[in-house]
Automatic annotation (TrEMBL):
Its EC number is 3.6.1.31. Gene3D superfamilies: MazG-like. The keyword ATP-binding applies. GO terms for cellular component: cytoplasm. The gene is hisE. The lineage of its organism: Bacteria, Pseudomonadati, Pseudomonadota, Alphaproteobacteria, Hyphomicrobiales. One of its GO terms (biological process) is L-histidine biosynthetic process. It comes from the Bacteria. Keywords: Amino-acid biosynthesis, ATP-binding, Cytoplasm, Histidine biosynthesis, Hydrolase, Nucleotide-binding. It is an enzyme of class 3 (hydrolase). InterPro entries: HisE (IPR008179), PRib-ATP_PPHydrolase-like (IPR021130). This is Phosphoribosyl-ATP pyrophosphatase.
């Protein structure tokens, strides 16, 4: 199973949780709380990933990276942005030097 397929399946599961009203879904609770809460949680997880990256425990970094990916997908769903749309942006950047691509963006849009 490819990693992209895993992300696609996770994004679809997150999308389906939007309509879960049982109160038993963490994902649904995040989405109901709104984009600001989703963004804050993503930020917290990103910081935890940075801290893990600075350490020596590779398993901790993997776990935190998985949390970052999950919370990014929740954040995207909160704004109705699909994983496919993000992947298309990345695909459009393929073959372009990262330095050139960054320089081509309008100032402040990094």
């Amino acid at each position: 199973m490819s990693e992209v397929n895993t992300l696609e399946r996770l994004a679809a599961l997150i999308r389906s949780r939007r309509s879960d009203t049982s109160g038993k879904s963490y994902t649904s609770q995040l989405l109901t709380a709104g984009t600001e809460r989703c963004a804050k949680k993503f930020g917290e997880e990103a910081v935890e990933a940075v801290i893990a990256a600075m350490g020596t425990d590779t398993a901790a970094l993997k776990a935190e990276a998985a949390d970052v990916l999950y919370h990014l997908l929740v954040l995207l769903e909160s704004r109705d942005v699909s994983l496919d749309e993000v992947l298309k942006v990345l695909d459009g950047r393929m073959g372009t030097s990262g330095l050139e691509e960054k320089a081509s963006r309008t100032k402040g849009a990094s």
